[in-house]
Specification:
Helix content is 33%, strand content 25%. It is built from 10 helices and 13 strands. The chain binds 1-O-phosphono-alpha-D-glucopyranose (G1P). 1-O-phosphono-alpha-D-glucopyranose binds next to strand 11 and helix 9.
Amino acid sequence: MKALIPAAGLGTRFLPATKAQPKEMLLVVDRPAIQYVVEEGLASAADEVVIINSRQKKAIEDHFSPDPELVALLRSRGKDAYADEVERVGAMNVSYVYQEEALGLGHAVRCAAEKTAGEPFYVLLGDVLVPGNAMLPRMQEISDAHGGASVIAVMPVPKEDVGRFGVIAGAAVADDVWKVDSLVEKPDPAVAPSNLAVFGRYLLSPRVMELLADVEPGVGGEIQLTDALDAVLEEEEMYALVVDPADGFDTGTVESWLETNNVLMQRRREQ
Ligand code: G1P
């Protein structure tokens, strides 16, 4: 099973910091943001992480490649703890596919179709960090309990913010689980079906990958993953895990990225 991380975006909201450096490589406490996401993927049922990259963002690939010269240099200087970390990150099971054109999240995911080989797969959005790594195993549990259904993470957000997210309609079937009836991408807050926003962690059935091939451009002229999820509901069940705001961090804006650094640094000090 694969965990897909779309990473081909331009990082517009972080310019000029992202002019010569991918947004995914910006530091969060002590490592690039994307390293948290890769580690989370590898801590789940996934055996490999597939980064959907753009050709311009080679720094991401360099980060996850072995660097024996650097390791040897560090060891010769007695800096073994750093050498161990460099070795560890270079040995992570990461591969790459390329999104040649920025046509939307759904299009990015579809670029990895061959990698998923007709199996269920995770999608992990790099804008969201889940440092405890507990969310994917819980989503897998819910899927297993419902015959392999797709499961997405959702988080309650203030009603006025729903227009920035995918939003679900449905009903609670347990304390923290909803059965999803429909989804809408970036709805007008006045008509949004709930305040539960899609939070950037997905465990999806292979049928979603098939349907993505036929999804037409939607909101913003982009091929939306949310539209494929809404389409699969005609054929399959889907569940949503309602996550606790303390378990996941949005790093999609400069402000939320700084706030995430502060909170995680504080947690580190308290350890
Ligand atoms: C994407 C998804 C949206 C989801 C959001 C979570 O939107 O399309 O459904 O709620 O990520 O971060 P984007 O942030 O790329 O506009």
